[in-house]
Recover the amino acids of this structure.
């Protein structure tokens, strides 16, 4: 009887079908690891996009507070409502005189639709910020 080609090259086989299941198991583990890394990458990407939008909202609020206080036509008793338009969004403001302080309500809106509401209490005599509420 003629010997098979693989036995002629490799000699007598002693693995008895062990190599194929073992290599498939290793391939399966490698595939699971790659899929886990891809899922982790996507979740981190979404997290950093969320952090970036939050940073943009906070930056809009800080710039608008500076613009409201620094603008003599608006602060302290000029125009009591309006909006500032920036590169990444806009901020709507409303100024009210409340007993002992000036209340400035701000709503930052990004171009993507995210919003942030802030109320700032300002001392009318010194122009210093007394309190800051984020909603």
């Amino acid at each position: 009887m003629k010997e098979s080609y693989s036995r002629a090259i490799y000699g007598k086989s002693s693995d008895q079908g062990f190599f194929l299941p073992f290599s498939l198991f290793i391939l399966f583990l490698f595939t699971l690891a790659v899929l886990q890394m891809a899922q982790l990458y996507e979740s981190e990407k979404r997290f950093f996009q969320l952090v970036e939008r939050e940073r943009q909202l906070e930056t809009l609020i800080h710039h608008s507070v500076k613009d409201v206080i620094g603008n003599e036509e608006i602060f302290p008793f000029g125009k009591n409502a309006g909006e500032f338009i920036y590169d990444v969004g806009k901020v709507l403001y409303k100024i009210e005189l409340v007993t002992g302080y000036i209340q400035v309500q701000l709503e930052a809106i990004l171009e993507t639709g995210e919003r942030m509401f802030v109320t700032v209490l300002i001392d009318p005599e010194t122009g210093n910020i007394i309190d800051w509420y984020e909603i």
In short: Residues 15-134 form a domain with the Pantoate--beta-alanine Ligase; Chain: A,domain 2 fold (CATH 3.30.1300).
